[in-house]
Amino acid sequence: MTQHERTVNDLLTDLRGSLPAHTLVTDPSQRDTYACDGLAAYRVRPGLVVLVEDAEQVATTVRACARHGVPFVARGSGTGLSGGALPHADGVLVVTSRLRTLHDVRPQDQRAVADPGVINLQVSHAANPHGYYFAPDPSSQQICSIGGNVAENSGGAHCLKYGFTAGHVLSLDVVTPEGDHLTLGTEAPDAPGYDLLGAFVGSEGTLGIATRATLRLTRLPHDVRTCLAGFASTDEAGAATSAIIAAGIVPAAIEIMDALAIEAAEEAVSCGYPEGAGAVLVVELDGPEVEVAHELEQVRRLCDGQGCFEFRAATDAAERAEIWKGRKSAFAAVGRISPDYIVQDGVVPRTSLPEVLREMGRISRERGVRVANVFHAGDGNLHPLVLFDAAQSGATERAEEVSGMILDLCIEHGGSITGEHGVGADKARYMPRMFGDQDLETMQLVRCAFDPQHLANPGKIYPTPRMCGERPRVVHAADEPVVDGAEVF
Q1: Domain at 392, CATH number
Q2: Same domain, 214 and 228
Q3: 192: phi then psi, degrees, rounded to nearest 5
Q4: Angle (deg, nearest 10), helices 353-367 and 395-412
Q5: Contact between 455 and 73 (Cβ < 8 Å)
Q6: Does 436 fall in a domain?
Q7: In a shared domain, residues 19 and 114
Q8: pLDDT tens digits for 158-188?
Q9: DSSP element (H, E) containing 216
Q10: Distance, CA of 464 to CA of 441 (rounded, Å)
Q11: Cα 452 from Cα 445, distance rounded (Å)
């Protein structure tokens, strides 16, 4: 038996002595269930899966990993799109989906206290009767977890006005990579000292595991109006977006879909978007009724001034839902027009959107790869969907090349390689293109302060010599074998 095999056997013996047997998943076929998150391009069978049931079991598991020098990865609902919850073949996957108690909803001080496995939308459902909701709204909000939102600093369609998860978390109970319980942040605003809470939110599981979150609730707006504008091109839709922002209007959401994304949405959900549109602009306004009515007319005029050929304003909740239906289903809908696709996530300054979209179109034509565009226009957060058929020779490689070129475009225009999906395993190799050596070294110092053994979610965010030379793979998840680790688990 090798030293590594002895180590993992000792860890398993340790955990069997301190955790209920039903929380430990050792069967290889059952571990395969957890081999990937929402990015099926990467699949790794975890060495061991622990289905923790409370914060103390999280700490017990992590302390055991620290004692034996075994890496661990936290997983919530598994909806992430960057491989952030990709398991370690020789490590432990700590699954928090059973920590799903919504402990408290306090409308009197706009607070909610939730376990990491609580579903995002569940918080709003509990708060709505009191006149409040939880503002971050990722597209996966019906299934994504609060713990995952914290790890990725999730946003959503309404982040232009209401911001990302970091602005809606007041404090966190966490388990550090050494297995200690720690509370970061406070319910009191502007607490003194370093913002360790801010460092933890968005750290993608590399600084520890959140076990409870105190969330800030937002009051439901008095009025909400949603409108849809059809344009001949994304240039016109982008110009309308700039005109709206320049007029001093801050929409709750402002989204653009191009012709290919519209085609997919119509094929999937028959959303009734304007025929022949090269792009549609979805704008949602909220606030006092008089203010919203005034802004809606401003938006109508500004869209007309940029070539809008069809404008619709929803008159009730059902019509609002109909407008949003196509946008909310866009990612999944692309599967109707392409057997395989890569969901990318990058950010550019809003004023650079027209030029970047034109460059993306040029790359698409030159490489013979179709790209559908769905994006948060207000903050320049792009979600290009690179379409291909993996069954065709060379198609996967061309799609990967185009995906990488899009990220390079974002960097060249002063943007970012991610807006809300995170870096994870998928984009770590791009970090040196965006940051210098000193920047990366400083980030690593922060990580080392929390995790001196580098056991928490290793191989994510920061490139290693091995990953720098690697190329991502996009595969049919059902057809590919998983990478396996130590069978002694």
Answers
A1: 3.30.70.2740
A2: no
A3: -75, 170
A4: 160
A5: no
A6: no
A7: no
A8: 999 999 999 999 999 999 999 999 999 998 7
A9: strand 209-216
A10: 12
A11: 9
